[in-house]
Amino acid sequence: MTPNTDLNQPLFERAKGVIPGGVNSPVRAFNAVGGTPRFVKRAQGPYFWDANDQQFVDYIGSWGPMILGHGHPEVLQAVQAAVLEGFSFGAPTEREVVLAEKIRELVPSMEMVRMVSSGTEAGMSALRLARGYTGRNKIIKFNGCYHGHADSLLVKAGSGLATFGSSSSAGVPADVVKDTIVLEYNDVAQLEEAFAKIGSEVACVILEPIAGNMNFVRASVEFTRRIRELTQEHGALMIYDEVMTGFRVALGCAQSIYAQQIEGFVPDLTVLGKVIGGGMPMAAFGGRRAIMEKLSPLGPVYQAGTLSGNPIATACGLKTLELISQPGFHADLHLKTGHLMQGLKAEADAAGVPFSIDWQGGLFGFYLLPELPSTYHAVMKTDGALFNKFYHGMLERGHYFAPALYEAGFVSSAHTEEDIARTVDAAREVFKTL
Ligand code: PLP
């Protein structure tokens, strides 16, 4: 597309005049990879079309929610029916109860569920609840994990135990992050040291079980086990942020996978988003009844929302969960995602490009690194310029991956083996140019 016929660029210029950076969420701006973001006109199945009517195979799927692909007919029907009944009531509905029961059936550790409208809100509320329940202030998070943009979670790594946390965003007062401790992901020794020093002050440890915000880094089984043991020993809560992994890596979420390797493993609280809304603003947090009963109106921890449990979002989420509960859904998705990853790896190997892969269900990560990284520092050793070349090569050919090397990718049930084969064919051409 020559610049004077590209319709994305003038839209981006217009957008920049009225929306900061031209986008409503920063990663959409292509700052990491350079170039012009694609403005989406419409999407169907595994594809979307941009302002130029160019078709893309979509490996982002709205950053995770679209596990059935875009515009699944049964989801559309459920949403259309809900729209006709009313947009929002600010009063309870039966569908919220059905959705909460469905979540509890699929994720038994979530004995009670509270619905909100975004993953950020869910994570922020879970933290407040953990602090309210334990009566403690300190929280532990891990370098490279993202839990939304609540003030007390926007903390720079490297502060460790030696110093107070320092904010990673302007506008967050030092006082707000002074109780946030950032440790290295998968570093058991550092975790043990932290609990030995301040265990009695820790309200909770929050982590992504598979860190999709480092592309795809699994928490090791030993790391997960020690978090569970240490939080239990010291009276702190373990919060599993499954906003990205929830219902995407397995029907029982990532916790069902870790429970196969750690006997009796359950987190105290779980945070969900993305897939549970099927593309509508919907998220939730939940966990042990005794903890959840501390929430208002039952308990002293305040939490509320005008649009929480929105009737259209619940219809969309519920239908999505029903459809992904069909036997074999995640096994098929895992197989297909594996074909994509193995296909890309084979082509990278043939071209002599360093490449490592991992995937689970419909979530994947690849790195232009010879070995899979297990920490944020290792992820950041990726050659950014090489990634950008790969990224733009694939984009030009109509294959849409996350525009940043530290972001995971998503395959939906709507992607066909032919779509994947086309992506692998395109990658063969692109790897030769690197
Ligand atoms: N937690 C994780 C693991 C996420 O990946 C995200 C968003 O990508 C969030 C929380 C925040 O969710 P939201 O963007 O819906 O606020």
From TrEMBL:
- Compartments where located: Cytoplasm
Q: How does it assemble?
A: Homodimer.
Q: Which residues form a coiled coil?
A: none
Q: What is its main location?
A: cytoplasm
Q: Which gene encodes it?
A: hemL
* Highest taxon, organism lineage: Bacteria
Q: Which family does it belong to?
A: Belongs to the class-III pyridoxal-phosphate-dependent aminotransferase family. HemL subfamily.
Q: What is its EC number?
A: 5.4.3.8
GO terms for MF: glutamate-1-semialdehyde 2,1-aminomutase activity
List N6-(pyridoxal phosphate)lysine occurrences by residue: 274
What organism, scientifically named, is this protein from? Comamonas jiangduensis
Cofactor(s) this protein cannot do without: pyridoxal 5'-phosphate
Top EC class for this record: isomerase
Q: Which UniProt keywords apply?
A: Cytoplasm, Isomerase, Porphyrin biosynthesis, Pyridoxal phosphate
Q: So what does this thing catalyse?
A: (S)-4-amino-5-oxopentanoate = 5-aminolevulinate
Q: In which pathway does it act?
A: Porphyrin-containing compound metabolism; protoporphyrin-IX biosynthesis; 5-aminolevulinate from L-glutamyl-tRNA(Glu): step 2/2
Q: What is this protein called?
A: Glutamate-1-semialdehyde 2,1-aminomutase
Q: Which InterPro entries match?
A: 4pyrrol_synth_GluAld_NH2Trfase, Aminotrans_3, PyrdxlP-dep_Trfase, PyrdxlP-dep_Trfase_major, PyrdxlP-dep_Trfase_small
Concerning PANTHER family, the annotation shows: GLUTAMATE-1-SEMIALDEHYDE 2,1-AMINOMUTASE, GLUTAMATE-1-SEMIALDEHYDE 2,1-AMINOMUTASE 1, CHLOROPLASTIC-RELATED
